[in-house]
Amino acid sequence: MQKKNMSEGKNFKKVFKVRRCPMVSLNDIAKLAGVSKSTVSRYLNNGSVSEKTKEKLQKIIKETGYQPNVYAQSLKAERTHLIGVVIPRFRSPSTNDALKMMDRMAYNNNLQLVIMNSDLNSNRTLENIRQLERQRVDVIVLFATQMTEELKEAVSNSKTPIIVVGQQFEDVTSYIYDDYDAGRQMARYADELGHHHFLFVGVSETDQAVGVERKKGFYDYFKDRDVQIDFVETSFSREEAYQKALKFLPNLKATYIVAATDHIALGILNACRSLKLNVPDDVSLSGFGGYDEAQYVVPSITTVNYNFAQMGQWVMKRVLDLGEETSSELVVKPVYLTKGTSTKRVN
């Protein structure tokens, strides 16, 4: 290719218009191609993308002269060393266990956590994300509960890298547990104890992990079985679970109550005590989460354990990789059942 004389004003403008590579970001490439930033990252890392998308990205990257390695180095140089964290509520054992590990690793790597509470409010979650973006944090870690369309759009369009914990978001790095299998494990255990009538105390299906997957796993296990499963919806609040239980326990027909979380189970346990019902002699009770508090009450709660500290460790390792342009990924971690003294074989 014949070289242009860069001293000539006309030719210089022409060349500069075509070769704007130092100013082109991964986000610009994504917008030009009409795909997400994660899709561009997958392509750059030889990940799975459709042939049509691959051809489009090849063409745009060639035309713009985009250089991914230069961008990654630039991103590292502009770090604020601030890690934004959006939590659903302050009194959450799962979130607290993860935060303890994240804080320890952040301190050891000269990083600082900026923690914002959404108080289980989807609008506040959106506001928190926007505020953290304005503060130019290096990355946002979102402990997600509700999966609204507005939240999905905000996460997808954010110019700040986002890691989602607890829910699966398309084209965004997500860390989840196998909640469907958790539900099946609990159902299998209850089945082994000979129970045939259950009450599932769950939460709204806007929470995919807790509200849908755990319940679906439990229900699907008994799909072709002659059992009865009743359902009551509550929130993540122990107090609300307690108040709901005071209403349904006097007329309870089920022999086994499955609570969607250990917090809910503890609220129900308190209601049983208030009504002079014995757990597990009058009714068996189990939860999900493996919270420490649920293991130190009497009776101890049969539960499915989740390693939340491991979650925090994994998140921080991803944060430390910021700027390497790693592709998005979905991490699904296994869970395991722990037998407490709150359940027993039915006569």
TrEMBL record:
Domain of life: Bacteria
Keywords: DNA-binding, Transcription, Transcription regulation
Pfam families named among the record's database cross-references: LacI, Peripla_BP_3
Coiled coil location: none
Transcription keyword on record: yes
Signal peptide: none
The HTH lacI-type domain, residue ranges: 24-77
Single GO molecular function: transcription cis-regulatory region binding
Name this protein carries in UniProt: LacI family transcriptional regulator
